[in-house]
Write a structure and sequence with these properties.
alpha+beta, five-stranded antiparallel beta sheet, 14 helices, 18% strand, flat
Length: 444
Amino acid sequence: MEIHSLQELQTADRMSLAFGPHGLGSALSPESAAEFQQLRIAECELAAEVADGTRRSFERLKRVFAYGVLCYDVYTLIDDHALLMREQALRDRFVQWCHGSLTFEDAAGSASVTEPVTSYRDVHTLCESLKKRAARARAKEVPQQWKLRVGGELIAFNGTLFGLRNWARCAGLLRGRRSRGIEAVQSTLRNDVAHPVGFQGGTPVDAALTLHDLAEFINQLWGRPTPGGRLYPAPVPREIAVIAWNDDGRVQITDARSLREGEDTEGLSHVLARAVFLPGTRTEDAHWMEFDARFETTQYPMDYLWGPGTRSAALAWWEREQPQGDTVDPLDRVLLVREHDGEIYPPMRTEVAAGLNSLEREGSWHTVRADFPIDAYGHVRGLTDREADHARRPGDCRACSVYVLGSGSHRQAVDAAETALGTIRPVQPPPVRVPHSLHWPNRF
């Protein structure tokens, strides 16, 4: 082993200096690189409720990350350890959730076991004990399968990372449909770290992203979604916006306060809607131009309020009614998709689908839980390429990021939505849409 002097150990690694605010390029100064890399993870903060063990482990990763400027290999070590740490966070949260005891039941309903637990070591010991008990029962040709009681459900749980992820989802601690797939990928990456084959290396970009994802994951486990988050975003604010367009293809969206400026323009139509209106931010709705009052064609939920009409009429309604903004959770939306006469319609929110007339209810319907309308649409469009019985079976779709709630007639689809959401109040918005849709069939 080569022994380095203290001065050599304090010298910046040239590979670390190559990563700057604009990507790979000319080397930063050591001082600028140290500041830049620390700023990359400065906003990775954990909620106050997070268990002390998880918090201290995470803060250690943040401290060590700064030393990557001196040794490029630190970034790989950070990336690897952050993947491993997800299991520690799940274990700490599981022990808190237990409140001192765990209940397992035989799937056949013939037996129940409740044991005290004060640490995850107790949990692991109990799981091993039940595993041996089930093996002895099988030797006597008595089938036995122990499952964990989580609220009103019984789930398979053996104390492994997979079991912990399954528990966290069933307990409602993790949310989002796309994030579920990312959790599976990150678990696979974690297994590659725990059981390595060959040498591998990472970059400061990889390590910083993994730390950000880990912070979101931990905070979500303790009930704190991340504002502007990539995986578990907090509810986003909606404001009153006005969408205006003309026959020449010009479309714009502005804050409703802009109605007080300017004059009526011939041929210009205005619609008022409650929308996610955050220009230049990560949560800006990239598909507002496809707004449709009856179908879900935008990235985030948009509520039709008034229109179309002139600017002065829109201003008069807005000032008279004084509608207010709100917040909306962009994840786990319940959407209904209709198939009829070989056509797949864009998704609908449940209250709109419940308010359709008898003619519009014809065809086959699919009720799914999805983060974005395009996910629900893509799931139904792909049904013809999959086995029909599996793709329509309630539960997580193995081919995409939606959760299937039900399929069948319109009544069956609405019933499935009511089971998931509770009572639904039907609404009947007018057939108003911005006529310049780029991604959805123009006939809608």
